[in-house]
Amino acid sequence: MSSPVAGNPILIRGRLLSFITEPESAEDRASYRYEEDGGLLLRGGRIESVGDYAQVAAAAGEDVEVVDHRPHLIMPGFIDAHAHMPQMQVIASYGAELLDWLNNYTFPAETEFANAGHAGRIAGHFLDTLIAHGTTTVAAYCSVHRESAEALFEAALLRDMRIIAGKVMMDRNAPGGLRDTPQSSYDDTKALIARWHGRGRLSYAITPRFAITSTPEQMDMAGALALEFPSLHIQTHLSENHAEIGLTNELYPDCGDYFGVYERYCLAGPKSLFGHAIHLSEREADAMSDSGSVAVFCPTSNLFLGSGLFDYQRYRRRSKPLRIAAATDVGGGTNYSMLRTMDEGYKVIALNGEKLNPLAAYWQITLGNAKALSFDRQIGALDEGYEADLVVLDARATPAMIIRAEKIETLAEELFLLQTLGDDRAIVETYVAGKAMKDKAVRD
Ligand code: GUN
Ligand code: ZN
Predict the structure, then answer these.
(1) Over the range 211-242, which residues count as b (16 or more CB within 10 Å of their CB) and which as e?
(2) CA 417, CA 411: separation in Å to the nearest integer?
(3) Which residues surround ligand 2, an ion (CB under 5 A)?
(4) Given ligand 1 and candidates 97, 237, 245, 276, which is best to mutate, with the most ligand atoms within 8 Å of its CB?
(5) What is the pLDDT of residues 356-378, one digit of tens each?
(6) Residue 403: CB partners within 8 Å, gap ≥ 6?
């Protein structure tokens, strides 16, 4: 694959959908902008103008290449707020809850990422697979090895993707080939920040894997990094599974509760992304809300590992609401698609006796996740000046979808069909920084 160039401007035509606010219902027309015959002029990796096709085309002039995606629906590229790059060969590992799943499948697979060749190969596949599923931004975990983060950032730079990523810090309760030390995790993280953060569209996330795999000394180092680099994201796991919570409380008896561990080491805050956050006490939820921390909903993973039902609507409605993101959590999660993720999310929310309206689901995986990642001035909307990350969706991508679509009358129904029956087959194209990338995958 050649390295990205800003490329010639292109004028994209299709049905445009972009959210303005979180939709309160499927009838909340004020929450989004929709153009039945819309135009998007992409130049230099950004959206230069957007609106009615005839107007955008007239202003664009004659020399612009036109790509006509009618009758398909064009939205901001999907955002995945939590996934594990080194778990591509862990997905679909049978029959274990979290801690056994980590020990039996995940840790052995991650050990292989000491090999830079292996890390490079999987990193490329990881990003290409996400792109094929319509995802243009991911917050990703790498393995403990510095090489794995080098590989993922290199691959993202080559594709000009906006990603957030970090090497996991882990110095206990893991096999020898998968442990660093407090000092080496600090040094490696600092070196990776210096080399990659702010290059292209890359952001570094300080990534202590979770409290169980870090000694207090390493948590101190993670906290020191957080204080040294206060604008960086932090990502970790929280309250996913009862055995995990029990062991955490044993390992950190003085912290009161699981979230208290992260508070103790200065790791809570508006740039902090807490994967799972299923079994929170009211105190923990209040503290998360007060600190502006983000709870990341990972429905396919939470179901697959039998972890529990994230109470999305209660978290939103509580007097101190939580900031929420949605994510695949591949490879605990079972699909790369944010459509499949929100389908399973809908069912988890239904099991909690609630509903998620289709508009809200798409808000969540575009502007909602952009807000949760503090990138809502760059991505998540089809607005002038925004980065040109787009997904083109076909609600009639399969025979089953075609038959069902005969009975569809509203935009919300079309979105719900895409979410319920759709997957990568429904992704017609994915634009990354203004370039069509769905079929550009590197294969080896
Ligand atoms: N907790 C700590 N590490 C992991 C991981 O890799 N996946 C999931 N689902 N939970 C974790
Ligand atoms: Zn995870």
Answers:
(1) bbbbbbebbbbbbbbbeebeebbbbbbbbbbe
(2) 10
(3) 275, 329
(4) 237
(5) 999 999 999 999 999 999 999 99
(6) none
